[in-house]
Amino acid sequence: MADYPVTPLTPPLSEQEIIRRQKLQGLIDAGQNPYEITRYDVTHHSQEIIDNFVDDAEPVEVAIAGRMMARRVMGKASFASILDGQGSIQLYVTRDDLGEEAYAAFKKSDIGDIFGVKGVPFRTKTGMISVHVKSMTLLTKSLKVLPEKFHGLVDTDLRYRQRYVDTIVNPEVRDTFRKRSKIIAAVREFLDGRGYLEVDTPVLHTLEIGASARPFRTHHNALNLPMFLRIETELALKRLIVGGFERVYEVGRIFRNEGMDATHNPEFTSVETYQAYADYNEIMEMVEQLYEFVALKVLGTTDVPYQGQTIHLKAPWKRITMADAVKEACGVDWTEWKSDEEARACCDERDIYVEKTAKRGDCLAALFDEYVEANLIQPTFIIDYPVDISPLAKRKPENKELTERFEFFINGHEMGNAFSELNDPIDQRRRFEEQVAARKAQGINAEVDEDFVNALEYGMPPTGGLGFGLDRMVMLLTDSATIRDVLLFPTMKPMGKKDEEAEEAKA
């Protein structure tokens, strides 16, 4: 028997991997290459068989396909389990049914091999619904050995790097991503039901603009232009409000060249909505209704268990101004600051870092981050943000230092951001210019989006806008501790990169 090909680029193989390759080569030599099989007609799935089984009913042959996850050989009869898209089901396999040669081949197969199976469902003496196998077809040979307890690996990052293994051996992980899909569908159902139109806007931008985050840079070869991956969908969606679409939303991938932690990944999914003739009060009510709708749709309850606590999503949620929240938490009243210098001094006294150019609003936000945010466990709207930190929000008519803006917090984390959108093109240009100047003073490139200002000059109606991180919503509704648990393929440093960089540093 010839050895299965191994090239100079093939990673070192374990003894088990060598044996599996030899088994594959044996199949190929016998004219039974499983990789040449192109299809298998599946008639049923595991959970469907279990749910619809009726004792004493007329036997019906089923054809299922999936990965063998366990096997117990007992001479002329064996038990195995097969994992498919719905779950797993037990197989009862006998030499008398398969024949000598096929049964011998089954006994030589490996955990992880993918089979097509035909047989008849029945209930065993122990009460387990199983499939009495009449024929088996090896559809794919697995050359790798599945781990027994993937969660128990010392290198937990391996679960994220090899999600395809994680989802094979951990049913709860598959369940998380099924729920993620249901959550996205429920969000769309809610917004579609309120008359919103789903749209797509560009991922590649020619300007370094938008939210206060650094973009990823790329280059367009045909146009010979530097380009930037979007860090928000806001400005494009508001152009559509100008253009006459009264309610629009986008479920979009966002890219931010910033740090990673339990709630941040460089690429993530956001939902942004814009509604003409609405203000931030109406959007607050919509957020409450949205979370209630999605929780009931996916979980059947608005009392959601999360990391040892129960989060109560039923409306109404608490509402408090940023200024009042800070005053309650640490006694500081920002209205008593007479200047930006006095505000910065207040932060310095409390060892809270702010930029040398920080304004009163920046300092209030820094105090909020330090004393308030982590304590907002139950859903809370923090409203009326300073204009200094809200370049796209409309000023409050009764207090020009504040804006009609809110963020909502759950379990100590910001979950979303919303405004009564600024539609004054003159004020918008002024704020853009101030924002650009501040970022350039920090060594960060930025530009005024002249086309967006141009759009506002045609006239944008009063508009309520909302943006929230879908991944954080999924974390909450699946009781997941980190954002990596709800991203199928989170951003990871390549394997071995850390070691290579360490060696380079030593050299």
Question: Overview of this structure, please?
Answer:
The structure is a single chain. The protein is α+β, with helices and mostly antiparallel strands. It has two domains: 15-140, OB fold (Dihydrolipoamide Acetyltransferase, E2P) (Beta Barrel), CATH 2.40.50; 169-317 and 378-503, 2-Layer Sandwich (BirA Bifunctional Protein, domain 2), CATH 3.30.930.10. 34% of the residues lie in helices and 25% in strands. It has helices at 15-29, 46-52, 95-98, 100-108, 157-161, 163-169, 171-193, 234-242, 280-298, 322-330, 340-349, 360-371, 425-441, 450-458, 470-477, 497-506; strands spanning 62-74, 77-83, 88-94, 114-123, 129-140, 197-198, 204-205, 217-220, 225-229, 247-255, 267-276, 303-306, 309-312, 318-321, 380-383, 395-396, 399-403, 405-410, 413-420, 463-469. Strands 6-10-11-20-19-18-15-14 form an eight-stranded mixed beta sheet, with helices on both faces. The chain has a five-stranded mixed barrel with strand order 1-2-3-5-4. The longest helix is centred in the middle third of the chain and has 23 residues, at 171-193. The chain starts with 14 loop residues before the first helix and ends with a helix.
